[in-house]
Amino acid sequence: MTDGIDRDAILARRVLLVSAAASALGCSLPGRGLAERMGRVPLPSWELLIQGQPPFSVDARVPSPDREQLQELGATVEKAYEALRAAHASLEALWGPAPDERALREVASAIEHVELDIQSVRSACGDRLWARTSQVLRARAHEAFLRSRVKLLERAIVTLPNATQTLMAGVCLSCSTPGSVVVRDVVTFTADESTTTQAVSGFNQRRDPDAGCGFEEPVRIIVNGHADAMERDPTGLSKARAAHVRIKLLGCGLAEDAVVVRALGDSIPIEPPGAAINRRVDFDVTGKPPLR
Fold this sequence. Notes:
The radius of gyration is 23 Å and the shape is elongated. The protein has two domains: about 20-165; about 185-285, CATH 3.30.1330.60. The protein is of the alpha+beta class. Helix 4 runs antiparallel to helix 5 (about 100-120), helix 4 packs parallel to helix 6 and helix 5 runs antiparallel to helix 6. It is built from seven helices and four strands, in the order H-H-H-H-H-H-E-E-H-E-E. The longest helix is centred in the N-terminal third of the chain and has 28 residues, at about 65-95. Strands 1-4-2-3 form a four-stranded mixed β-sheet. About 40% of the residues lie in helices and about 10% in strands.
């Protein structure tokens, strides 16, 4: 009897801690009786669960060191998807009328493993100076997608009979890093267009806010032009887009040799074909040229 009371007390304290942690992170936990109030949430098939998955393969045309960084990210991402598939398979296996709490906890543990792998993907986000912007953008896309898939699994598991509040905590993490010193701005383009009126807002740090760009001090920038595979001339468009943005930067007072252009065609998509983020110019900072 004492063991049961102690166990209930431990679980009650755990629920309290989980609730407090979730509140601090901006999350909320559903109350007891959710399954009775909502009914069972359908478990999506694996094919439906990963529909819209961002790409993580690396095109042979991608130059070094982008290629190596994207390959490293791809291996990390693949591991996270393997963990997600294992969690889905575990949940699918116990999708019966009333699974016991032990089985539910095993599934919850599998989902926790997915969270750990997502945090490994997240390590490519933020202000790591050596990380190429394409790697960071892909990492952010996969992190957001994986977290949305985990939420779908959590929605299913917490409406199962016998689910307890200890299974209901989500992790609220952001891939953004306030005060980042690395340029992670992205200029997007209309399909099959090579010019834009979009300001390079991430560079707008100088006294003239209308310039649409600017730096506290001169830096050396790589302007990476990208296109979507569904556009009519990905290589030509990526080159024209990068050249267009380079002219904008030179208009801000940067030296000619401070801005280098790369045309990457459709070799580094961030989302599936057709997504606006694939039609972009992004930037990498590689050094500082002499003052003019």
